Structure formats: structure tokens, C-alpha cells
Amino acid sequence: MSDRNKLLQDLAFVLQVEASGLMQDRKLNADGFWDSLAQMSMTAALIAYAGAQVSAGDLQNLETVGDFLDYADRLRGDTGK
Q1: Residue 80 pLDDT > 50
Q2: Which DSSP letter does residue 27 get?
Q3: Distance of CA 68 to the CA centre of its chain
Q4: Could you give the CA distance from residue 36 to residue 57 in angstroms, rounded to a whole number?
Q5: Exposed (0-12), middle (13-18) or buried (19+): which is 24, by Cβ within 10 Å?
Q6: Using CA atoms, how far apart are residues 77 and 73, in angstroms rounded to an integer?
Q7: How many Å apart are CA 63 and CA 50, to the nearest integer?
Q8: pTM score of the predicted model
Q9: Which tens digit of pLDDT belongs to each residue from 18-71?
Q10: DSSP letter string over 40-71?
């Protein structure tokens, strides 16, 4: 499993959805699961993915799965594609 796929699996887990349901335009808080605990969990996943510091404020401002993935790729310094 690639690092990006692992990150998507982690995101799906905290959002309590199937990874296949993570479309780019899906709202992170569509079902109310993008709370502080989810953001803390994803902070750890992002650190593992990107090896960089993660701003809690940045995570709070993300709205969609696409925003999250773009942020992860910026942290990592690549396009992730």
C-alpha cells in the first residue's frame, strides 16, 4: 500500500466512511466526524506521510477531501499523484 493510500485509509477511518467514498469534493464534516479528535488523529497520519510539522489551525480550515490531500501533498513537497 502506498503512503498516499494509507493516508486515505486513515482519513476514511476517522470520517467513518469507506475509502471508496472519499471523492475530492466530499466535505470533511459532511457527517459531523471532522472534530478535534479526528484532526488530532490525522495530524499523526500527516506527520507520518509528510515528515513535516502540521498546523492544527490549517486542519480546521480544510473543507473537502481534496483540500486535505492538497495540504498533505504541500507538506510533503510533491503533487502526490
Answers
A1: no
A2: B
A3: 5
A4: 11
A5: exposed
A6: 6
A7: 20
A8: 0.88
A9: 999 899 999 999 999 999 999 999 999 999 999 999 988 899 999 999 999 999
A10: HHHHHHHHHHH-S---HHHHHH--BHHHHHHH
